Amino acid sequence: MNYAMYIFFFFVLIVLFSSFVTVKQGTIAVVTVFGKYRRQLRPGLNFKIPLIEVIYSRISIQNRSVELSFQAVTQDQANVYFKAMLLYSVLNHDEETIKNVAFKFVDATNLMQALIRTIEGSIRAYVATQKQANVLAQRNEIVMHVKEQIDIVLESWGYHLQDLQLNDITFDDEIMRSMSRVVASNNLKAAAENEGQALLITKTKGAEADGNAIKIAAAAEREAAQLRGQGIALFRAEVAHGMTKAAQEMEEANLDISVILFTMWTESIKHFAENSDGNVIFLDGSTDGMNKTMKEMMAMQFQKPKN
């Protein structure tokens, strides 16, 4: 009798402890009764009916990721190789959503297979409408197309596509080499155009600088000529003024004006001798030559100006 009581109490303890269930954070437990959905258990300590309620599965509500590698063919029959990262999660915590996640697929392997094949098919269908030269530039368009096509299907499964990243897009080796040659030739062409533009700018600026220098030199020469002309005119005016004043003083002193001319003649000869710098100047130094020169100078002095 005592052994039977011990066994009974031991069985009661086992049943009692089995009625308490711990659900981890970020996880929801699906409970069934005789194979039929009954309810869900939230994270923390939960109670279930022993021997009747059974935990069918534990569903993670955290984000999950998977890497994809597949091939597609463009409109112009070029092979494109993709490496992508898929980020997805349970749509929400609603009861219908959790039931879809728990019972739509037999297990996680079948879900993953369907998810990967669906995304690959959507990308292949889009790439098949594009040419090889446009694929690399349409990375964002491919992602947006997949999200628009896949979100509706995933929602019926109870999931939501968080993000799709196309980390690597490559082509066959021959295509990659031809693309490299095209890029290199375009770079050489751009470099040649830039060098031509730089040379043109340099020559244009040089021509402008030369033209401006010529203009500045011409303006300076013109100004210098004007200043030289003004200096000569002032010099002549001063000479005339001095001669006039000297003539007036000679007349007031009752002296012959020809003395002034004689002085100017001798000063000129002296200036020629001092500044000839080795040059030979022939002058008639005789008395007759001096008289002839004096007469000519006096004739120029007393010549009346023409009206």
Automatic annotation (TrEMBL):
Gene Ontology process terms (BP): proteolysis
Cited Pfam families: Band_7
Localization in the cell: Membrane
Band domain mapped to chain residues: 18-183
Membrane topology: Single-pass membrane protein
GO MF annotation terms: peptidase activity
InterPro entries per record: Band7/mec-2_domain, Band_7, Band_7/SPFH_dom_sf
Domain of life: Bacteria
SUPFAM superfamilies: Band 7/SPFH domain (SSF117892)
PANTHER family: STOMATIN-LIKE PROTEIN 2, MITOCHONDRIAL
Listed name of the protein: Regulator of protease activity HflC (Stomatin/prohibitin superfamily)
Source organism of this protein record: Pedobacter cryoconitis
